[in-house]
Specification:
The chain is built from six helices and no strands. By secondary structure, the chain is mostly helical. The mean pLDDT is 87.
Length: 182
């Protein structure tokens, strides 16, 4: 149970740290090789690019988990708490439907590429693994959306508190934290 709890709390963060570290190290090595040794590596730019692709799709899930994904929240400024939850629930259901479509079609594309045996030029990684970032990232996103939908339904039933946060709420929290740290 501890492993599941840890994965729920830290999976995206851990993956993002690893991918960012590999990407940064790869670019740093390439810059050093090019400018200090007048030689370049054929694989470093490709590795950095593929890490960035995976980073983006895992980042979508992280954004949903933290409720910091892109949204227009001007309407949320004018409605009450329960109405915010209902609007957030509707938005999450639409986002979930979109995510499920991306998973299905993204998986199909990745499977086709794996079947064709296409590999990347420098690393010789099957391109299907690179394209698998899309369905994997959106699968994690779907899990986070289902969690939020569950919490929103419990909130509407009066069994739990779930706050739909706007960008203004995040700024206010950061301002309060900054004042408390001083």
């Amino acid at each position: 149970m501890k492993i599941i709890k840890w994965l729920d709390e830290h999976l995206e963060e851990s993956l993002l740290i690893v991918l960012s570290t590999v990407m940064t190290a790869s670019i740093t090595i390439q810059v050093f090789m090019r400018y200090a040794l007048n030689s370049s590596l054929s694989w470093s730019e490709e590795l950095a690019r593929y890490c960035f692709i995976w980073l983006v799709y895992i980042g979508i899930s992280y954004g949903v988990k933290k409720q910091k994904h892109i949204k227009v929240d001007v309407v949320l400024q004018f409605i009450k708490n329960k109405q915010k939850v209902v609007l957030g629930l509707i938005a999450n259901l639409i986002f979930l439907a979109f995510s499920l479509l991306v998973i299905v079609y993204g998986y199909d594309i990745a499977q086709q590429l794996l079947g064709w045996g296409q590999t990347s030029p420098a690393l010789h990684v099957p391109m299907g693994f690179v394209y698998m970032a899309t369905p994997v990232g959106f699968a994690l996103t779907s899990i986070r959306l289902i969690q939020q939908i569950f919490y929103q339904i419990l909130t509407l039933m009066g069994k739990r508190e779930f706050e739909v946060k706007t960008e203004q709420d995040f700024v206010m929290e950061e301002t309060i934290e900054d004042k408390n740290q001083k």
